[in-house]
Amino acid sequence: MTAHEATGSDDHHDETDDDVRLPWQLWAAIGLICAQAVALIGLGLIMALKTVTGEAQFLSAAIGEIVVVLGVATLLLYLAKRLRGRHASARGLSVFMGLLWLPIGWFLHQAGLTDWTFVAWAIAVTQTVLLVVAPTREALGVETRLPMAADIDEEPDSETPKG
Q1: CA proximity to 108, closest of 124, 87, 92, 132
Q2: What is the greatest pairwise CA distance in the chain?
Q3: Where are the membrane-spanning stretches (predicted)?
Q4: What is the signed CA dihedral for 86, 73, 39, 123, rounded to 10 degrees?
């Protein structure tokens, strides 16, 4: 008996050949999410180094920023793992995390960092598109369309005459 069978968990995915059959769009989204996480981990390490060397002006603020940066990186890695395991529940938050780059890009623009503005916006658009295209939705088992009113079976009203 495996650990999966012992726990009776339906929310577990064993690595099989199904991993290879993920659509390239989903693999690209997972790679983009992991790249963001790695960048945040690097940023957190740089911030920690500056804090230790005394370059940070306010120690408590620096520690708080490091915790937030590493926390977001951890969340991104968790989402990437869930997407690789075909867990549809990770898709919505992954789209949201991608869309967060839109206001980040705006603030970069306001700060005069126009080149980085376009990088942030490209990440937002690319990640969102990769997660909402049909092959990704199908791989995650997400409904591709909403039911129309005509598709809903309704009980006929027996008191209303037809004709």
Answers
A1: 124
A2: 85
A3: 26-46, 58-80, 92-112, 118-136
A4: 50
Alpha-carbon distance of 36 to 33, in angstroms, equals 5
pLDDT (tens digit per residue) in 64-104: 999 999 999 999 999 999 999 999 999 999 999 999 999 99
Q: What is the pLDDT of residue 6?
A: 45
Distance CA 114, CA 34 (A): 24
pLDDT band at 7 (very low <50, low <70, confident <90, very high): very low
Domain-by-domain residue ranges, the chain? 23-141
**Cα 131 to Cα 30: distance, rounded to the nearest angstrom:** 9
Q: How many residues does the chain have?
A: 163
Give the least confident one: 115-119, 127-131, 140-144: 140-144
From CA 81, how far away is CA 33, in angstroms rounded?
A: 10
Q: Using CB atoms within 10 Å of the CB of residue 136, give its burial: 0 to 12 exposed, 13 to 18 middle, 19+ buried.
A: buried
CA dihedral 33, 84, 94, 138 (to 10 degrees): 130
